[in-house]
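Sequence only, no structure available. Ideas?
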Amino acid sequence: MHGKRIGIATLAVGAALVLGACSSQPDTEPARDVGPSPSTSAPALRDCTNFPRTPKADLSNCDLRWADLYGANLEGANLHGANLTRTNLTRADLTYANLTRANLTRTNLTNANLTRADLTGANLEEANLTKAGLTEADLRMADLTGANLTGANLTGANLYGANLTGANLTNAYLRDADLRMANLRGANLTGAKLAGAKLRRATWTDGRVCAEGSIGECK
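Reply:
I predicted one. Tokens follow.
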């Protein structure tokens, strides 16, 4: 009988130790990585229906889908992150405009003036840039997949790392343009002027990677 009492006491002490160890654990689960908080996520698009379409206007993160901005003077305007999907910007003046990370999918930019505009990281997939002026424009890492750049002036433009897969560059002016690391697979370069264009490590129309020292032609 005495031995049984000792055994029961031993079990009671063991149970108390276990319960004590459990109670020392935190009441909540460890913090989990759930991504950026709402305060650091991309801002919601603004309704800019009544915003001014004037030079240097602040149209950043504006929802301008399907808007008719034919011939608008938006010189130096801030259009960072704006959604311009299918917008009509024919003959618009976008000189020096900030279009970084703007969505210009299937936008009509025929004869638009984008001289020295900043289009870094912009989405220009299937955009119509026929005869657009893009002299010295910054198009680094821009997506121009399937874009129509027939007769466009890209003299001195920065297209480093741009995606030009399947783009139409017929008779385009690409003199002194920076096309290093750009993807030109399947692009139409018939009649394009490439004198002085930097093509080092660009992916050519046939899938070849241009060698070091490729200037004006893919070697």
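Residues 2-23 form the longest helix (22 residues).
Hope that gets you unstuck.
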